[in-house]
Amino acid sequence: MECKIRSWRIEDAKHLAEALNNKKILENLRDGLPYPYTVDDAKNFISAMLEADKDTTYAFAITVDDKAVGSIGVFRKDNIHCKTAEMGYYIAESYWGQGIGTSAVKQVCKYIFENTDIIRIFAEPFAHNLGSCRILEKSGFVYEGTLRKNAVKNGIILDMKMYSRVKE
Fold this sequence. Notes:
Layout: E1 4-6, H1 13-20, H2 23-26, H3 39-51, E2 57-64, E3 67-76, E4 84-91, H4 100-115, E5 120-123, H5 130-138, E6 142-153, E7 156-166
Parallel strand pairs: 4-5
Antiparallel strand pairs: 1-2, 2-3, 3-4, 5-7, 6-7
Helix pairs in contact: 1-3
InterPro entries: Acyl_CoA_acyltransferase, GNAT_dom
Pfam family, one: Acetyltransf_3
Protein name: Protein N-acetyltransferase, RimJ/RimL family
């Protein structure tokens, strides 16, 4: 199945809410997202991404047939890490296992490396999130190591893995 990345549109809110109103997805994301996730929550997120600093926040809808089925973003770090950015993403569960994540990650990396001065993109999935780790590996990211006891999610201390891709 083919996907494309594009800028968010406020009318994506319904589909975004449908995708994120899923505990399986929320369990693998950082804290701060409400559950249940409403259309108003989605509108607020989309508005924030559209209004964000275009030199530090690169946020895209992952789409299939122009329908938002996920989200992917690259967020520039600062100070001595100003040429480094962190990537995060998720895909609606009904689209898992179809190559959409890998395609979206590759598209975003190409965009970032061709249109910004960022030279390193990294991602830190939970160590148990094998699907996300596999997406990164298939997208040219290199596993750099395990960040032991690096996060607390739902009261459980978790390891995370560090992956990066650098501009050649």
